[in-house]
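Lecture notes, continued. The same structure-token format from the folding unit now serves as the input rather than the output. Read the line below as a description of shape only.
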């Protein structure tokens, strides 16, 4: 059985549309499944306007994206991973519909993806992407969710 790492989790819903569906216990379970070390994390669900502003101001990309991770402890020797993970409700819902999956399954994938970014994983190169996607698929499988990268 996997070891549960210590987790301090804050959840914010300035865009409340998914608050009833994506409950704190579900979110905590998904985050915990992707943790390899203790963490202090904030999950924030935002509308397209805030998502676009953050993506533009911090990444220079003028559009709302599905998930943004602001990692504050990129030092491998840090004892606690600290990060803010921002999920854009509008993009999350649009992508789930386009990919013919539930909002819940897509949200779980994006949260796992964001938590991995918080811990230093990236997908800038093909090799990094392959590693990260494999880890994501394994974690989602432990949660009873399908591999989001599998061919349909």
């Amino acid at each position: 059985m996997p070891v549960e790492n210590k987790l301090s989790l804050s959840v914010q819903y300035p865009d409340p549309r998914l608050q009833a569906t994506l409950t704190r216990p579900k979110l905590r379970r998904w985050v915990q499944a992707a943790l390899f070390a203790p963490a202090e994390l904030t999950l924030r669900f935002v509308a397209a306007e805030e998502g676009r502003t953050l993506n533009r101001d911090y990444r220079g990309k003028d559009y709302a994206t599905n998930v943004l991770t602001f990692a504050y402890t990129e030092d491998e020797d840090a004892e606690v991973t600290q990060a803010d993970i921002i999920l854009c409700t509008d993009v999350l819902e649009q992508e789930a519909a386009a990919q013919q999956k539930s909002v819940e399954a897509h949200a779980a994938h994006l949260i796992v993806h964001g938590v991995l970014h918080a811990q230093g994983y990236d997908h800038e190169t093909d090799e990094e992407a392959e590693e990260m996607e494999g880890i994501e698929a394994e974690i989602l499988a432990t949660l009873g969710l399908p591999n989001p990268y599998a061919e349909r």
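Point for the exam: The beta strands are 7-12, 39-46, 67-71, 81-88.
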